[in-house]
Give the backbone structure.
Amino acid sequence: MTKRALITGITGQDGSYLADLLLEKGYKVFGLRRRTSVPIMENIQHIVNEVEFIDGDLTDLSSLIHAVKVANPDEVYNLAAQSFVGTSWDQPILTGQVTALSVTNMLEALRIVKPTARYYQASSSEMFGKVVETPQKETTPFYPRSPYGVAKVYGHWMTVNYRESYNMFACSGILFNHESPRRGIEFVTRKITDAVVKIKCGLQHELRLGNLDALRDWGYAKDYVECMWLMLQQDRPDDYVIATGETHSVREFCEIAFSHVGLDYTNYVVTDPKFFRAAEVDLLLGDPAKAINNLGWNPQKTTFKQLVHLMVDSDMEKAKRVSY
Ligand code: GDP
């Protein structure tokens, strides 16, 4: 029988890769779509006719109940959020409403309409924030350092709570930073690869960044969505850290990205206080041992260098298409 999946955040980086994966696996895919004046379809243009869209908003419980009734899903992937850490200081209440409280809306919609559906919650390494131990694993205490991180901690614990309270098959994936050509331009990785290409083409002359010494455990989003799916195929629901187990600095990312097109980043990168965070997460390094053992996850499928290169190459291809 064809499996049915409902994805929130389907137009985003992870939602679009997950939709690709589930369609490949023969799922009937439903995507929750929030109304915007201009549709944001860039990431899913290629599958727009294969996905069934349901209009709704995470902050509106009645629209979620409707979506669950229409989709009648076997699996629900809750990926929608106000997902940018920097914005969460400018819009802390909205971040709380969308990134935190909406998780309860989604869980309630499932509990009321389809409590047997399997549920995936997109949790985040930002929950570890001012890290209490290194590397961070499933048992590491949380110490979030942004309104975004605080909101994600709420969503994580609600997921655990619905599992324990109602015996629902609810899983929380604690994903460390994961990037790709579909990453939003405001995130540092894509901001760098986009600038590298523009500088190479003579369209931009410098790249203004914040903290170059921040360390992140960066993986490839396309590899990470496989783990989301794997979590929901297990015999019992659980929480997993998904990470590469390697950490690199923003500076290192710059070095590799610029040198890929024959440039030296020190000639172009300028530090700008505007891009520093009110409270920084200095170091993230995940321990993916549980995912390796239980899910058969291979954290080194795409190396850091390959990731940087494929992002630069993709931005270069896009630039060429635009200029033809
Ligand atoms: P995050 O880990 O979810 O906050 O992902 P980001 O890609 O937004 O930021 C990763 C790290 O890069 C953080 O420690 C930022 O402080 C640092 N960073 C340095 N310069 C910049 C910048 O210009 N933009 C962004 N977004 N982050 C920057």
The two ends are 46 Å apart (CA to CA). The chain has ten helices and 13 strands. The chain has a mean pLDDT of 97.
